[in-house]
Amino acid sequence: MKSGEQPVPPGLHLVSTPIGAAADITLKGLDLLARADALAAEDTRTARRLMDIHGVALGHRRLTAYHDHSGPETRARLLAPLEQGGSLAYVSEAGTPLVSDPGFALVRDAVARGIPVHAAPGASAVLAALAVAGLPTDRFTFLGFLPPGAEQRRTALAELKAHPFTMVLYESPRRVREMFTDLVNILGDERPAALCRELTKRFEEVRRGSLAELAEGLVDEPRGEIVVVIGGAPAGAGGSEELEEALRSAMETMRVKDAATAVAGALGLPRRQVYQAALELEKNR
Prior knowledge:
Blueprint: E1 11-15, H1 27-35, E2 38-41, H2 44-53, E3 63-65, H3 72-79, E4 87-91, H4 104-112, E5 117-120, H5 125-133, E6 140-145, H6 150-159, E7 166-171, H7 176-187, E8 192-197, E9 205-210, H8 211-216, E10 226-230, H9 240-251, H10 256-267, H11 271-283
Parallel strand pairs: 1-4, 1-5, 2-3, 2-4, 6-7
Antiparallel strand pairs: 7-10, 8-9, 8-10
């Protein structure tokens, strides 16, 4: 450590890494990669390549792989030095750690041990897609990857038909055409959306339009990382049967007034209308 330089705070540091352009890493992220006592990465080869690009030396420090197949023993080995005041920088393969990557269990165990957890924010495919999609961003829901099976995917989309807020999801290039067919059939062909491919990379592409227009444009299987942004359901999209079902479910655990508020928000319906429907259901119980 150089004279006058502050030591890296003890604990687990979640460092966001570029989703494409290597220059997108933050100065704070580089500093943590250079000075943390130890490093962990979802993909050690990707981490080493990023460090080499920016001239960050690993030196004698440990770089441990932490991925989907890492178990409690790996977590315990990574966290033990942190209980003695050490620092560990964790990076996912690309983007912000814990967003569709295996870092959750590591953070959970760190919190359980009383270890400080810090975030060094930066690149995120979710936020990058929201920024360029041209759809409302005041409220949004991140869905990650939908289920790979066709029936499970359609069931998940049916549950989201009346969701009033912008939705962001990831999808594999191999399944994206099938998914768009389901999106059109279940959410409607006029729903606004954006298909973002290879964000921040050389062949970045953003297509905007209705779900039907985007589906028609998928003649060939697209390549690269894909993020899809979908507009929320228009107000009043929930039908009477859907409203009644939602109210019955909510009223099993909530008071009538609270259930009406929750369902009105979820379906994008006027609260007074939903409250009156809830009172009718309560009367007929």
